[in-house]
Amino acid sequence: MPNPPTRYPTPTEPVVEHLAAEVVPRAQAGKPRGMSYVDSLTPELFVPTAARPVRAKLRWLAADTQVMPHSHPWAQVAISTTGVIRLTVNHGTYIVPPSRALWIPPGVEHAVTMVEDADLRTLYFHQPRGRCGPGVPRDQEDAWRQCRVLEVSDLLRALVREMPTTPDGGAAISPADLRREQHLSALVRDELARAAAVKLGVDLPQDKRLRHLCEAVLADPTRHDTLADWAQDTGASPRTVARLFRSELGSTFTQWRQQVILAKAVSLAAGRMPMGQIAAELGYSASAFSAMVRKSVGQPPGRFLGQQDFNGSASGRPVA
To answer: Which of 120, 96, 98, 197 is nearest to 151 (CA)?
Structure first.
């Protein structure tokens, strides 16, 4: 039987003293070989409150490490200052390079996988009853009740680095340090509210056959060229798979796979792979890749990926 997701107490519930070791690997039968599994990195030691509305923590995690599924009653932002991470929720998966961050609303179960060695910085946000978001007006909150990939400004990255990461349970924070944290928190929330959203999420289905196919495409999107070839791996007919894509995900296979390609391109760009090599790696000519990116996100690939375009001209800031 799989382990149930971890649930963490609200700020008003008692917190049980945690074991000294923050990370406890688990042996997981049936999991991909070579993957290392860790518990949820003690979020109960960083509970945000009205007095400390944003709490930060930092952990370095090796590639192919997965933080097990868990949830908590406060919102979260995941940022990797180095290395690409992948966050998976029930309805989808998100590839997050260092130039982006992921907002996770309260109560959403999620798992985090390190695609590369990563300095994982986590921010927890206090959410007053009935409210959602980093302090935005009520009429803007609906957009924050779902996961969002956000651009990370240079200022936001600097603020995150300055946030204190000391867990609860030790000496009380000094008044001076508390004031500084509160000032930083206000700026963090303001920068998040101003951050542009980027469509880097890939929806995932509930149907087991289609989920298996989608996970295979995520692992290697260029292994097959046609839906018929992918369907053959599942034992279902292409017509059945096409119907499942429409009913479960509201899109065609081609549209869905395009989102996978974009997410994979972001991951490759974060490793500073040249644009032409990214296109070839994903089975595109330079011109076809450029046209696909422009049609999908309304930006040239250089700007979307934070690299130089194929002609060598810079069209976006470098991936940090």
So the answer is: 197
Query: What fold does the segment set 206-305 form as a domain?
Result: Arc Repressor Mutant, subunit A (1.10.10)
Cα 139 from Cα 142, distance rounded (Å): 7
CATH architecture of 6-198: Sandwich (2.60)
Q: Which residue has the tokens 């300055």?
A: 162
What are the sequence ranges of the domains in the chain? 6-198, 206-305
- pTM flag (> 0.85): no
Going from the C-alpha of 230 to that of each of 7, 215, 217, 250, the distances in angstroms are 36, 11, 8, 19
User: What is the distance between the alpha carbons of residues 173 and 164, in angstroms, rounded to a whole number?
Assistant: 10
Residues 249 and 207 sit within 8 Å (Cβ to Cβ): no
Say whether 248 sits in a helix, a strand or coil: helix
How far apart CA 144 and CA 104 sit, in angstroms, is 8
**CA 117 – CA 239 distance, rounded (Å):** 40
Taking residues 291-316, what's their average pLDDT?
Answer: 69
Domains 6-198 and 206-305 share a fold: no
pLDDT digits (tens, 9 = 90+) for 24-71: 333 333 455 578 999 878 889 999 999 999 999 999 999 999 999 999
pLDDT digits (tens, 9 = 90+) for 275-302: 999 999 999 999 999 999 888 888 888 8
Q: What angle do CA 183, 188, 193 make, to 5 degrees?
A: 130
Contact 40, 105 (CB under 8 A): no
The residue with tokens 């081609």 is 254
Q: Are 198 and 100 in contact (CB under 8 A)?
A: yes
Cα angle 117, 123, 125 (rounded to 5 degrees) comes to 160
